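Protocol step 4 of 6: structure prediction from sequence.
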Amino acid sequence: MKVAIITDQHFGARKNSKLFHDYFLKFYNDVFFPSLEAEGITTVIDMGDTFDSRKGIDFSALAWAKDHYYDRLQQMGVKVHTIVGNHTAYYKNTNEVNAVDLLLREYDNVTVYSKPTEVTVGGLDVLFIPWINQENEKETYQLIEKTTCDCAMGHLELKGFRVNKQIVMEHGHDGELYSKFKKVFSGHYHTRSDNGRIYYLGNPYEIYWTDVGDRRGFTIFDTETLEHVSIDNPFQIFHNIYYEDDNHQTFDARPYENKIVKVVVRKKSDTKKFEKFLDKLYDIGVADLKVIENYDFGGWFQESDCEEIEGEDTLSILNRYIQESEVDLDKSEITRMMSEIYKEACEMV
């Protein structure tokens, strides 16, 4: 039996941005639901962080999620197993109060797991592991020790895996705790990474600049063979454009409509031509446009440095600065804190 695994959907992200929800919807309408129908999939496993805000839900974000996602799954007769993640648990020390349980009770096809639970899916015994906290940690590891399930699926914070393209998590639990399982799938980190046994499947779409160019999507898992395949989301919302005296007349700006664009200027010998280049982007209706230009720093700043910074987003530059600084502090912890602050700042704009 084939099932779909999806994680970290973050409905209501970016302060319930219509721009982002329209972008999310294209993935669901053009990729996710057609794939379910084509493969005859009737079971979806949601591995956590379904909604974005731990403290509350915007009513329009909830309406969007019900209208465009949950209602459609219900109409299709799809069973949904939903694991509580850290963004859907209201308190940090317990999963007892959580968004998915409170908001989705009207759906008889949705089952919410706030405690570690053994579940049979397509003839396969799977251990569902929600966000591990002070209240359930002992119970979780006791069940991991005694379970006979071949697979585990959860919302885990394990060290040694990529949080995003730039950061490898140096804190968290040890993956060896899950060595008894043939396969472990997890949400929580938004980029794909694995060690051959534990697989972080990544979220479906870009939400921050750190995600630009990173493969996103969902996963189809065969409960009989234990094989899985990633279904990529071909749509991007963040784009880098590198300008090198490009001809504005032949530049096709249409792909950037309603996109968030960063123009990195590598060469500009004619200001008027460059302005006409930018005008084409504005005329097509970009959602947001930023320009980054290189300047002469008196010789101490090398061209290779410029090229490195051009390809980086704000968080990457901060992380690189932290790693290169000579401070007698836990750099991995500072990096983690900066990542959280950066995401919170993004929610303010």
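Step 5 (inspection) to follow. The two ends are 44 Å apart (CA to CA).
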